[in-house]
């Protein structure tokens, strides 16, 4: 089953991370110190691991997964957390990264955050 969530809030520091080409996501119950730097979303279960060629939908745009760090699926499953890096790299830059192909989206509360499994 696909991962279908909704963006609930945008932390005030998200713009600073956008400048680095990353978007950090967390479940909407994240502690305040993490929420301020994150795109928060509704809590949903992750039924299977994210893999290359899956599709992430953020800000009403589709992005192809090119690499998944060794910790990303664990933290996404436990806390709704990972770092999306818009690099298109075939090797993750960090264990918690999910690398995506494409330009960073503009995201607002109410937008879908989904992962479509291929």
Short description:
It contains three helices and eight strands. It has 118 residues and is mainly beta.
Chain-wise SSE layout:
Blueprint: E1 3-10, H1 14-18, E2 22-27, H2 32-35, E3 39-41, E4 55-58, E5 61-68, H3 72-79, E6 82-85, E7 97-101, E8 112-116
Explain this structure:
With 118 residues, the chain is mainly β. It has one domain: Phosphotransferase system, glucitol/sorbitol-specific IIA component (M1 Pyruvate Kinase, Domain 3), CATH 2.40.33.40. The protein has 3 helices and 8 strands, in the order E-H-E-H-E-E-E-H-E-E-E. The chain has an 8-stranded mixed barrel with strand order 1-3-2-6-7-5-4-8. Strand 4 and strand 5 form a beta hairpin.
Number of domains: 1
Shape: globular
Count of individual beta strands: 8
Considering the protein shown, what is the CATH homologous superfamily? Phosphotransferase system, glucitol/sorbitol-specific IIA component
Helix content: 10-25%
The major β-sheet equals: 8 strands, mixed, barrel
Q: CATH topology, which one?
A: M1 Pyruvate Kinase, Domain 3
So what's the CATH class? Mainly Beta
State the order of secondary-structure elements, H for helix, E for strand: EHEHEEEHEEE
**Strand coverage percent:** 35-45%
Structural class: mainly beta
Nearest-angstrom radius of gyration? 12 Å
Q: Which key phrases capture this entry?
A:
8 strands; M1 Pyruvate Kinase, Domain 3; eight-stranded mixed beta barrel; 118 residues; single chain; globular; mainly beta
């Amino acid at each position: 089953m696909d991962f279908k969530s909704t963006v609930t809030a945008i932390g005030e520091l998200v713009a600073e991370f956008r400048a680095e080409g990353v978007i950090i996501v967390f479940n909407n119950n994240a502690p305040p110190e993490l929420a301020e730097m994150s795109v928060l979303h509704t809590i949903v279960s992750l039924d299977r691991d994210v893999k290359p060629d899956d599709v992430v939908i953020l800000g009403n745009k589709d992005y192809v997964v090119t690499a998944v760090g060794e910790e990303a699926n664990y933290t996404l499953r436990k806390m709704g957390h990972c770092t999306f890096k818009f690099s298109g790299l075939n090797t993750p830059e960090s264990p918690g990264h999910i690398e995506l192909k494409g330009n960073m989206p503009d995201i607002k509360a109410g937008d879908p955050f989904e992962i479509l499994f291929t």
